[in-house]
């Protein structure tokens, strides 16, 4: 499955694993990134990694904690690390529940050590900051081991998003078909194609460039653990691992989704704040909206003489996500609209 792929040559790096990806059974250890701050000259940043391997078969890499304030995916990955019997695995799982570990420990989106958003650093730099070194090790040493990559995000502290499985766009039509099939196997309430406005520095964009079957998620958010989204996430991960032929489900699950695929229609998907104030949304997630329709108002409650500023939608579709904090400044993303997908599915 991996033989025809273009694998990048690994760049020299001081990072190392305490587990052996080629060994059968279950190992739980760390990716060690040498880290030399004031109080620890020869210390290391430790990123948890578990290998569960049994016989021959495909390899799936599961990532959580890409952002440190997104929780459902990491919980589902830790469940697998603790509870999955290696005898049920046909192939290999590489389980990484806390990849931007300093952000995870701080419960923040970005790293508390270098301030970087891990998901804007790929393919990383093995001689860069800690976050850049983590993404470099993933790019050079972890992703090349995989046939499939599951990147489990949620909306984080600033957004609440309808629980959904995400297709990362790729120029490779064969990979696109396999990605859509794997994402639909997740069977989230919604399947959405998200191009991140063409952003190439994400983990999923990197996995696609390396030819891995790639599945993303956005599981609610608002900086909390959603009970519904956690159930959807656990079930979806099991569905995808069954689809990949790595861990068969005990009992087949009936499909719940209607198979509809949506997309974020470019820049028109986003409603940004245009003023400093308090954002009042006009709709709940899941409501149908249309281009030109008033979307909400920004109030300046400390200057009541100033009239509220009205924001408008720029696309037809459904309200897919909403900003959580009421306080906004110009440029903040207040709302996100998803529209029916116009591309090819199969
Ligand atoms: Zn995220």
UniProtKB/TrEMBL annotation:
Pfam families: AstE_AspA_cat
Keywords: Hydrolase, Metal-binding, Zinc
Domain of life from the UniProt record: Bacteria
Named cofactor requirement(s): Zn(2+)
Domain Succinylglutamate desuccinylase/Aspartoacylase catalytic: 57-244
Family matches, as CDD domains: M14_ASTE_ASPA-like
Record has Kinase as a keyword: no
InterPro entries from the UniProt entry: AstE_AspA_cat, N-alpha-Ac-DABA-like, N-alpha-Ac-DABA_deacetylase
Entry keyword Ligase: no
Ranges where the record places region Disordered: 1-20
The name this protein goes by in its record: Succinylglutamate desuccinylase/aspartoacylase family protein
Species for this entry: Bosea eneae
């Amino acid at each position: 499955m991996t033989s025809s792929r273009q694998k990048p040559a690994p760049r020299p790096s001081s990072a190392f694993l305490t587990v052996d990806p080629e060994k059968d059974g279950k190992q739980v250890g760390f990716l060690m990134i040498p880290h030399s701050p004031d109080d620890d000259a020869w210390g290391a940043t430790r990123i948890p990694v578990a290998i569960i391997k049994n016989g021959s078969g495909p390899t799936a890499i599961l990532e959580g904690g890409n952002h440190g304030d997104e929780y459902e995916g990491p919980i589902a990955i830790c469940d697998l690390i603790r509870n999955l019997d290696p005898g049920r695995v046909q192939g290999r799982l590489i389980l990484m529940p806390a990849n931007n570990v300093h952000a995870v420990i701080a419960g923040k989106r970005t790293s508390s050590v270098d301030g970087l958003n891990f998901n804007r650093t790929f393919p990383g730099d093995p001689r860069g900051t800690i976050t850049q070194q983590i993404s470099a090790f993933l790019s050079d040493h972890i992703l090349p081991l995989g046939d499939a990559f599951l990147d489990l995000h949620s909306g984080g502290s600033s957004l609440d998003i309808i629980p959904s499985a995400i297709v990362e766009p790729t120029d490779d039509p064969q990979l696109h078909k396999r990605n859509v099939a794997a994402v639909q196997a997740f069977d989230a309430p919604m399947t959405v194609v998200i191009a991140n406005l063409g952003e190439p520095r994400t983990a999923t964009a990197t996995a696609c460039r390396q030819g891995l079957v790639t599945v993303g998620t956005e599981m609610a958010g608002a900086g909390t653990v959603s009970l519904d989204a956690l159930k959807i996430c656990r079930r979806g991960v099991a569905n995808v691992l069954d689809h990949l032929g790595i861990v068969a489900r005990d009992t087949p699950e009936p499909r719940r989704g209607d198979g509809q695929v949506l997309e974020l229609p470019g820049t028109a998907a986003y409603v940004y704040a245009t003023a400093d104030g308090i954002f009042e949304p006009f709709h709940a997630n899941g409501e149908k909206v249309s281009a030109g329709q008033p979307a909400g108002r920004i109030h300046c409650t400390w200057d009541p003489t100033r009239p509220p500023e009205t924001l408008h939608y720029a696309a037809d579709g459904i309200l897919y996500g909403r900003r959580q904090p009421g306080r906004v400044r110009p440029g903040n993303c207040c709302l996100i609209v998803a529209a029916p997908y116009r591309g090819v599915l199969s």
